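Worked Example 4.2. Consider the chain below.
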Amino acid sequence: MLPAHQPRRAQLVLVDLENLPAASLRGLDKDAEVIVFVGSRQQSVPLELALLAQRLGSTQFRFQRIPGSGPNALDFFIACELGRRLERNPDTICTVLSNDKGFDPLLKYLNIKGLECQRKGSLIEPTSPSVAVSAATIPTTASASDNIPVYFNKVLDTLKKSAARARPSKRAALKNHISAMCQKNISDTQINAVIQHLVSKKLIALNGEQITYKF
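Applying the procedure from the previous section yields the following structure tokens:
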């Protein structure tokens, strides 16, 4: 029997055309949605983007002109759209296409919360290292983890339904278990956020790599 088809995670690319007036979308995933943010004083867009907009159609590609000017006005529109999309679908992989490092603190914060965001100058280059998150940077206090991480409820419900002896007894095994139950559509950052939330809510205790369940 063939394995069941796993749905792909949604991808969203937000283009800062003020910062990258000659932005290229070479390397764009064929299913990604694109929004190009155009400054109020910009009079033209790259021909490549115009042709791509025609090919993909309005459901997958659109230009968003900013209806006013001011310091960082376009950046605020991008940040607003980013928040709206992640609120509706927190599993979306979001890319801000810009060389503006001012986005990095926000993107890093979202990654710490278990979401998946990146900033690039082009789609074919690595993500900015300043938005990357290691397990050590994930908040360790309950007050810093009030927002429920992506997949948390699903993971907790599955663990509660499992017999005690069937639950992973070590952190590495739990990470693999979470990845499997989420059909591998979850990033390592999101897995770490789920585990940390379990700890902060006193649902599990970690002693080194060893796990003790409190339910």
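Residues 1-6, 135-146 have pLDDT under 50 and may be disordered. Residues 11-131 form a domain with the Rossmann fold fold (CATH 3.40.50). Compare this with Example 4.1 before moving on.
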